[in-house]
Amino acid sequence: MSRDASRPDPESEVFAAVITPHRSLGRRGFVIVMAAFALLSTALSVPFYLMGAWPVVGFFGLDVLALWIAFRLNFAAARACEQVALSYVELLIRRIPHRGRPAEWRFNPRWVRLETETDEDFGMMRLAVAQRGERLDIAGALSPHERAEFAEAFGRALASAKAGPRTDG
After folding, report:
1. What is the pTM of this model?
2. Do residues 44 and 104 share a domain?
3. Distances (CA, A) of 73 to 60, 95, 101
4. Over 50: is that where the pLDDT of 108 sits?
């Protein structure tokens, strides 16, 4: 069976987004912070060493190690993401945690509606997709302002998907 090239593919993507948690410190910043902290710890431990309190040097080293471990755990958690893919026939939401098994939810775009919860002081606090009693919160890693922008763009794409593929002929 051949497809008419003038008709759009109903399985083509209408909207796609990958939502990742925000991290304000990149690799370069991490190196700078760790180097500065290690230099400061070294400078502070030298007088203790010269006074004969050499075990204090080890505790300063443990502080540097503890900070390094905390940053590594933070960077590992930053690998988590949420993927939203919308076509004319399916809405796929996939959550990929930094460890553990990914989870997937599939919805029919014609039955899905967006639900929001907004606070007048803070903005959009919650965004969820709902279908026949099932409700799934999405975009939790975004700030309230970013969540509102995402909801607006996703809402337009969802309306487009509900309308179906357009033909120009």
Report:
1. 0.72
2. no
3. 20, 19, 18
4. yes
